[in-house]
Amino acid sequence: GGSNKSNAFKLGFTAVARGTDDLLRVPTGYTANALYRLGDPINTTTAAYLNDGTDSAASFQFRAGDHHDGMAYFGLNSSGLAKDLSNAARGLLCMNHENITRIFLHSAADVAAGFNSAARVVAQIDKEVNAHGVSVIEVVKGATFSVNTLSGFNRRYTAASEMTISGPAAGDDLLVTPYSNAGTATRGTLNNCANGVTPWGTYLTCEENWAGYFKRPASATLGAKPAAAQNRYMGSGASNGSYGWANPAGGDTSGVGLYTRWDVTPSGADATADYRNAANTMGWVVEIDPFAPAATPRKRTALGRFGHEGAMPAKAVAGKPIVYYMGDDAQNEYIYKYVSTANWDPADANGGLTSGNKYLDDGKLYVATFNADGSGTWTELNIANPAIAAAAYGFADQADVLINCRLAADAVGATPMDRPEWADVHPVTGDIYVTLTNNSSRGTTGLSTGGKSKGLDAANPRYYNDGEGRTGNPNGHIVRIHESGGDPSATGFNWDVYLFGAEDDQFGNASVNISGLTDDNNFSSPDGLWFSQAVPGLMWLQTDDGAYTDVTNCMMLAALPGKYGDGGAVSVTNVAVPSNAGADQTVTTYAGTDATPATLRRFLVGPKGCEITGITETPDGKTIFVNIQHPGENTAAGDIAIPANYESHWPDGGTARPRSTTVVITKNDGGLIGA
Ligand code: FEO
Ligand code: CA
Ligand code: CA
Ligand code: CA
């Protein structure tokens, strides 16, 4: 027990009920307004969005992209000209556009013609590329917040924008492409999922599922070393890439490899077409200075290359290193942290990307091992570690370790997790919370891609059948890490499980509904997890689910978690695999009090087919911004000409195509959100 005794803040709203309506629902006494929808112009010269698939590819360089995801608010001063992080009435929103719902980007005729991944229409590729990336938009508070389309800060980064490659791997042979023979630049940031911020006021955008976009050969056609790398990051099979961007009909006539860059097949004699290393230029944490529109974003290679979900910092303390926590979101992947070499100097708070060069280009990358006794270890991924130096892959140097850090993490015995999504740090206790969204391969036989057992372990302790054909860990959980001595740079930690997801039909099953969830707070597939900075200890939890969507659309909950130890260590009986398969596991924890309706409560339910992901706030805690990603995504391509059959028409209603949207939420009495 003992949760939040030191925290006077209490959740004050009435829980929002589960539901499958095509609506965005917030508690009584709150208002949600659409702020920034797919296709909305960011300047005054771009036409209003037609939303019928005819808006041009080029125009998307000046429109909201698709699949809004992680975001952060950075205050501007009242004249709108300079940084003032304390201003709650005017600021810059930086926002990721992770992916696209392709059928809603193109005309009904184009959708009906089908998308041949071996011969794509060039204008369609260009539109899809431009609908990815990042937005920076100025928002100003009037009666409510709106986008200032006159702002000189407004801009888009797309999957074609120039990016600098920075840090210890920059210039490595594995990053050389025809675009940058020096291996120090690339085009595009891709599949930008969750995000982070820095103590010097810049934005971090994190490249997650980039691997699927690339055309690649069967790895068996490659040499041993590139084959091992491809197997670990992209799989062994040949592919045209998920959208066929490498295959414009008629070939790449751009003259600058605009499409060929998506094909990592070694091209032999034609060095100008050899983009075998292009995929190595994706999978990074990328730093953007919101206040410096002309500055080229920098890919920070010291933080490692993997399926980056997000990167959130420990509290910056003068004289101590800057520390980031990061999940690698794929089944049976790892949790990482980065510790800077330089110690934090508050004089660097306005240094922009120059401060980034100091703190994010030189440091140590660690990976987590979770022990059954509730202890854990951070192991540095360094070529000097004998286990890494001796790995069968054959690391050439530290740059290779950073570019292929999954393989290095395999070598040091890291713990494969149930899909690590967002990680954030409790601003009062310093505990780190990491969502593990779900894992259909947990508890099955065989080995993970990293060669580890998929069997149950204390940190990934659930195997059950949800009665709808899902097994493994269908509903996900949240692990909590307490650094040894409360020191973010420690190499040891303790951990417990904060919370287990469960559906309403599992309320009676104590080995599934371990956290004792109720109608007011149950959920499945936790993904977004973020601590308010204005209300210390207030955590927001967002879901990206397919298991519970038969009963409820995805949701956001407010939480007031306690501290490490309140959830207790986990023990698992009958961990044998596969003898356990088909049966629920018995999992025991201490009697956690972190998940009562008083400390965990449903705040929002989204429209049909959406995921709730991405949240930020004004610094007074009186406005939050939340992203509603891909409403209506289950609409069949064959129904594109039949609006009545769309899964969703949100937010515009009527017969409109649905749009990923940022919503602004305020309390009608002007109070703190969540109170
Ligand atoms: Fe893009 Fe792991 O969610
Ligand atoms: Ca996510
Ligand atoms: Ca997810
Ligand atoms: Ca279900």
From TrEMBL:
Pfam families: PhoX (PF05787). It comes from the Bacteria. PANTHER family: DUF839 DOMAIN-CONTAINING PROTEIN, SLR8030 PROTEIN. This is Phosphatase. It comes from Azonexus fungiphilus.
